[in-house]
Model the fold of this input.
Amino acid sequence: MDFAFDTVTEDLRERLLRFMDECVYPAESAFEEQAASSGWGPPPLMADLKDEARKRGLWNLFLPGEHGAGLTNLQYAPLAEIMGRSPTIAPTATNCAAPDTGNMEVLSMFGSPWQREEWLTPLLDGEIRSAFAMTEPDVASSDATNIATAIVRDGDEYVINGRKWFISGAMNPNCKILIVMGKTNPDAPKHRQQSMVLVPRDTPGLDIKRGMHVFGYTDADHGGHAEIEFRDVRVPVDNLIGEEGGGFAIAQARLGPGRIHHCMRLIGMAERAVELMCRRALARTTFGKPVAQQGVVQDWIAESRIKIEQLRLLVLKTAWLMDTVGNQGAHTEIQAIKISTPITVEWILDKAVQVHGAGGVSQDFPLAGLWAGARALRLADGPDEVHKRSLAYRELKGYM
Ligand SMILES: Cc1cc2nc3c(=O)[nH]c(=O)nc-3n(C[C@H](O)[C@H](O)[C@H](O)COP(=O)(O)OP(=O)(O)OC[C@H]3O[C@@H](n4cnc5c(N)ncnc54)[C@H](O)[C@@H]3O)c2cc1C
Done:
């Protein structure tokens, strides 16, 4: 078993690390200041960072195949980890941010030539942003078969009625297109009732109601999380992605890579937390010795290092499986990392916050925001309990 990265990955890692040191970390405080006054749009300095990343060949690294950089999951994993060290800036600057990544994957896998031309091309160029609208306030959406939004064919058009919330990125005025999941045929078998349609954000009847908060954060620099009402929203039938009844299968295909990307970035967040924890523990003295010499703090640091190494190995194994046996063959591992990574990184961030004292919960360190992000990822893309249920079921099947 060879644990070394290949030469392509090593080269990109070095370039990405340099980009982080020279451009991303130095921009963090100005980014925060601009974000406070730039409404739901991206802080102005993001445009320069995108230009710079593109010039350095650090663009669309997430996307395998002809439309993207063509990396494997195993090659992309250590790069996403590096981006995760500054998760509000680096993924967007390199055009590797959710939910665009998943949406670009859907369009590249299932989009018609017209849909790719119209929406995939500007997304790949980083000219526009996008959103993915599945979750609804009125039904338990962790069971996607509950999704109730109606998509009804009327001649050459679909008419959409329903309400969605927590639609990431949709508050951003630069978000031009939404992939909307709803029911085209409530009488079909359970997993064939759903379809996905492309809905331009400026379509009449699409009403952005408000931005949902996450532990009090608006996440405006990510484009927020919108509550949206669809009232008699009409789109041409050409906006259907794939076939009628294929929405559930597309949602499953979309979530595999999305989940592993979240986990890779979370490991980067954990590395950042450990670095901050060590620096702070060495810099502060209580009761006659540095905080770093307190046994309990050393225990947190050691446990954090062990947990990160364990997570990284499982995430890399999952990436390798996705490359070699496909997303379906890696299903158990994808669920295992989606369960174990956010909760473990949440634990590490909690300890880093504690070592920072009051500063840890404040705006002077990135820890509070990182913690909120990790905690929210125990819900986004499916709650822990739902993944455990399905993982346990597959395990039990071997003995039934
Ligand atoms: C920050 C953030 C961003 C998001 N972005 C998007 C987005 O861009 N697009 C989108 O469509 N959605 C998005 N979501 C929504 C997310 O995908 C849903 O919140 C999630 O799927 C859960 O659905 P729900 O909130 O309706 O919870 P419910 O389905 O109501 O479930 C509530 C709870 O019930 C428990 N539960 C459910 N089923 C089981 C079970 N079988 N066994 C045990 N316990 C169970 C779990 O604890 C679960 O958390 C986002 C959420 C957050 C927090």
In short: The chain has three domains: 7-124, 129-242, 248-397. The chain has eleven helices and ten strands. The first helix runs from residue 7 to 37. Residues 99, 132-135, 140-142, 166-168, 214, 225, 376, 379-383, 385-386, 389 surround flavin-adenine dinucleotide (CB under 6 Å).
